[in-house]
Each structure stands twice: as structure tokens, then as C-alpha cells.
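Researcher: Next entry in the queue.
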Amino acid sequence: MIKVFSGKWRGLGESQDGLGMLVDFKFREILCKFSGAKLAVFMCIALHSDQEGLSFPSINTISRETGYATSTVTEALNDLCKLTIDNHRILARTSRTKKDGSNTSNLYMIFPSENELTEIGLSPMPETGIAPIPKTGVPPIPEIEIPPIPNSDIPPIPEIGNEVKPLNLNINHSLSLAEAPEKSEPPEQPVHRTTAKRKGDLVDGALAYSRNSNDPDVSAFPEELQPILKEFCRLWSLQPPKPDRTKGGPYANWILQGRMLKEALGEFGAAALPAVYEAWKKFKYDVGQPRSILNSARSTTGKLRSEAQETVKEPEVDQAEIERGLRELEQQKQDYKNGLSDGSAENWLARARARKAARENQIVPA
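Model: Structure for this entry, 366 residues:
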């Protein structure tokens, strides 16, 4: 598939005679196997090969000619040495050493046959890592017979028996319970009441301080904002800022945002903050000041208002009272048309007042 020959070739510059490399068109069928840096590394090794397909370029040389880093070249070489096509190896690699025993560049063979692999001491199937160094004519190390150690005056080690002596259960049982000595109790240490009392006071003071420190202090804020800010700080575990004289500082911003929060809570006030907190727990966004929960407060109070409207029952209507009122109105119209049939406007006005008083007192006139 690749052949090294001597003849004319054309390239950059003028034509000249020299060694060349002939690539068969069948190489196109396996070109897809050489992805990434593998193709450049393989072609670099092939261009360094002699007529037998052998070459020994160093890692630095391959890196310089292909433009890839040495780590990429090493990884591509490992992949090429493992690559097989139709049970044939693409590249064989074996290590070389100098006369002084130090390592030098590896020896490579492109498209090696089984016989060639056997000659250089490699396996027909690829192996992981660099192949072992081929066998040379070094004779094997002869086996050395070690003579037996002569008898000496050292006495033999005595054998230790495996006998287990039985326990003597009568030991320390000669005394009766009455004669047994009593255990001496350590003397009771006196308790320093003064020190204990001081320690107790210290612990109580620390607990009281922790309880007071967790309770947000909003006494410096306006009175109408204190319930809302205190509940807000308690639910979100915040501490309000301390008063300062700077204009537009944290304290002034909290007052402004507290009023905005009070307006958003509306008629519910601080009682709606637990519901706002439950809605906040579904999303858990950052809350560091009252302005952070304004949108949640508005949506929560809107839901509370809609729920309150649904629970309000419409007043029951007395249909009989409506009909009675309509009859009285119709009677008044009729009396007006008839020109006050009783002949007296005062009597008509008196009857109207009586009917009004009867309605207010829920007394049905005769």
C-alpha cells in the first residue's frame, strides 16, 4: 500500500531526483481509520521509513514536523500501535538502547507482516504499551547450586507442645462473702457553692444574651412600622440596621422599604407575613431587606382578599317583605291618582308615617 522507490518526483520548487514514497489508491479505503493526529503522525513515520519500512524518528522530531504537541504525538502513537485492520497491524513499535545501555528513539515499522514481527521479536497482535526489547544472543544465566549448610554446634529449637492447662476454678474462692474486704469509696469532694453559683449565673447570662440577640430590635423605627419589621426580621432571621445620621443610608432605606411593605400588606398588616414566608420557601431567593419580598407580599395579599370575598355570604332576602313593600308602593301610587280618597292630605301623611314606623319596628299594621 506504501512503497519507497527511487525516481523523479515533483514538489515545491524545481524537480529533482531522490527517494520517494508511492501510496496506493487503496489507502483511501482505510483513510477514515486515521482520525485526528493519527494520520499526520503515521505519514511522518512513513516518510522517515527506509525500503524495509523501518524508521526511528524521535518524539520531538515527529512533534516538530507534524505541529502537534509531544503529549498528542504520544497518544497518537499508542492508538496506532493498537490499531488493526482486517487483523493486520498498522504500526509496530519496539524500544532501542545505545551501547552504554541508555534508551534512544523507538524503532517503527509500518504495515508489518507476521514474519517481520517475529524477526524483531514482536507479537502479531498489538499489545498495550511499548513492546519488549527483542531477544539478543546473550547466554542465559547458569543455575548455581547452593551447598547444604553443615551441622553446627547450635542446639535445636525445642518443640512447643499444644497442651492447654486447665483453669483452676478454686483460686480466689477461699474467702466467703462475709470475710471479703469492703471496697473503699473515694472521699466526697466538697462542692464550692460560690464557684458553682457564679458558673450558673454566667450560663444563665449567656442564654439570656443569646435569646435577646436573636430577638430583632426595631425600637428605633417608627411605631407604625415596628410590628411589620419585627415579624419580617424574625421570619427571615435578619437584624435591622442601627440608626445613623447619613442620608440615604441603610436605616433610612429600611424605613422607606418598610412603608412600601406596609402598603403592600394592606389591611392584613404583619399577620400576612407568615403566609408570605410560606410562599417564599417554594423559591428560596435571597432576602436581605423588606424590598425583596414586595412582589410576594402583593400576590399573597391578593390571594387572601379573594379568599375572604369567597367566604362572605350574601344576606338572606325576605321575599315576603319585598312583596309587602311593593304593595304599599302601589297603594301609595293609587291614592295619589285618586286625589287622596279620604279627602285629607294630613290623614294620608299620617298613614305614610305609620307604615314607615311599622317597617322600622317590624310591626305589620292591621
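Model: The CA atoms of residues 70 and 221 lie 70 Å apart.
Researcher: Noted, moving on.
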